[in-house]
Structure formats: structure tokens, C-alpha cells
Automatic annotation (TrEMBL):
A GO cellular component annotation in the UniProt record: cytoplasm
Keywords, ordered alphabetically: Cytoplasm
One Pfam family per UniProt: P_C10
Subcellular location: Cytoplasm
Stated name of the protein: Protein C10
Length: 64
């Protein structure tokens, strides 16, 4: 589990993913509802891209 977490954290730090997160954050304009609308899907996709390599399903259940 620690290896998966380390890979997810590393993925969030990758320049292309950091840019995607920043763009989503900018689009949300500090509005909590918009954060859920714009930021959460990007964060979830980044996480799912990593965890599927460890045998977790590439859906909402795999992320939980």
C-alpha cells in the first residue's frame, strides 16, 4: 500500500499533472462546488492511472 501511495503522490508532482490540477483549481475560483466539479475529476483520474498498474479496478471503487 505504501508503494501505491508513493506512486500516486509522485504522479501528482509530475509537471503535466501539476498543470492539469492548477488549471482545474483556477477554473474553480475558490468555490467549493466548482472544486468538486473541476478539481475532483482530475485528481481522481490521476490516481486511477496509477492504481490500475497495481491491480486495482480503474473505477470509483478502485480509488476507494
Amino acid at each position: 500500500a505504501a508503494a501505491v501511495l508513493a506512486e500516486v503522490i509522485k504522479a501528482f508532482g509530475a509537471p503535466e499533472n501539476a498543470q492539469r490540477m492548477e488549471e482545474a483549481r483556477d477554473n474553480a475560483c475558490n468555490d467549493m462546488g466548482k472544486m468538486l466539479q473541476f478539481l475532483l475529476p482530475v485528481a481522481t483520474q490521476i490516481q486511477q492511472d496509477v492504481i490500475k498498474a497495481y491491480g486495482f479496478s480503474n473505477d470509483g471503487e478502485g480509488g476507494l
